[in-house]
Amino acid sequence: MAIKLEKPDQYKEFLDKFDVFLFDCDGVLWSGNEPLPGVKDTMELLRSSGKQIIFVSNNSTKSREDYMKKINAHEIEAKLEEIYPSAYSSAIYVKKVLKLPEDKKVFILGEGGIESELDRVGVKHTGGTDASLRRAVNSDDLNTIRPDPSIGAVLCGMDRHVTYLKYCMAYQYLQDPNCAFLLTNQDSTFPTNGTFFPGSGSISYPLIFSTGRTPKILGKPYDEMMEAIVAGVNFDRKKACFVGDRLNTDIQFAKNSGLGGSLLVLTGVSQESEIYEKDAPVVPDYYINSLGDLAKKA
Ligand SMILES: O=C(O)COP(=O)(O)O
Ligand SMILES: [Mg+2]
């Protein structure tokens, strides 16, 4: 049964239960670029209480450095080794698990965050932010785009410049069963500016539907994200709480990872009613209107 945190004495009791807080970003720390009220105060309270902080985002448009700039821009303290976006977990997977051969490239249906993280681990890539692909497809394309043995993987994420041409390229590359099909995350919607728009999972769905292939997903709620985190930072899972806004990624991730607890905030995707739906697939241990409430005193 989920416990709603509504009063300052509950906030203190909750915070005292955990030594580590893992934070989702979109819908928790901010909505798009809009700050959420009181988040800065809560983060300062946690830091001053000696809590360990880790940031874990499914948003693959940004690299670790990009994320550190954004977190700092919101007046929240962060160190690079505390930041784990899905572009980072995906690059780690391609390098260390897939072990892409040197002569192979990754075709990216996504943005600069994925390119930067693949660069960091020395994996060659194509597509992504290549502006020459931001155009209509033509008959020459349809005569020439075919499976390409130099493409060892198609890696999809949020792509705000997606085109039919890019879909044609990814579709053809994925006709080769030796070409891996990877997603940074499968979030159906993206919370921003107080509303929602199609998310990474909706950008990649046309490829899932057209190829009939099932991609490997490298963000929350899957183990590959936790494997990337524990390779970078030590923490006690049983004393850790995941704070997120989406039940089927963030709260599910907390359960899959055996964390000590989970807190759903109601400033992003999931709503209070979903917690009480009959046979709700996943329920948080705690929930609160907004992360900023935790800093409120009696
Ligand atoms: O980019 C998304 O869709 C979600 O990102 P988040 O994991 O930081 O909420
Ligand atoms: Mg979120």
UniProtKB/TrEMBL annotation:
Key words of the record: Hydrolase, Magnesium, Metal-binding
Cofactor note (record): Divalent metal ions. Mg(2+) is the most effective.
Binding site for Mg(2+): 24, 26, 245
Transmembrane segments: none
Catalytic activity: 4-nitrophenyl phosphate + H2O = 4-nitrophenol + phosphate + H(+)
Protein name, as recorded: 4-nitrophenylphosphatase
Binding site for substrate: 57-59, 220
Residue numbers annotated as active site: 24 (nucleophile), 26 (proton donor)
This enzyme's EC code(s): 3.1.3.41
Gene Ontology molecular-function annotations: alkaline phosphatase activity; metal ion binding; phosphoglycolate phosphatase activity; phosphoprotein phosphatase activity
An individual GO BP term: carbohydrate metabolic process
Class of enzymatic activity (EC top level): hydrolase
Protein's organism: Schizosaccharomyces octosporus (strain yFS286) (Fission yeast)
Entry GO CC: cytoplasm
Cofactor: Mg(2+)
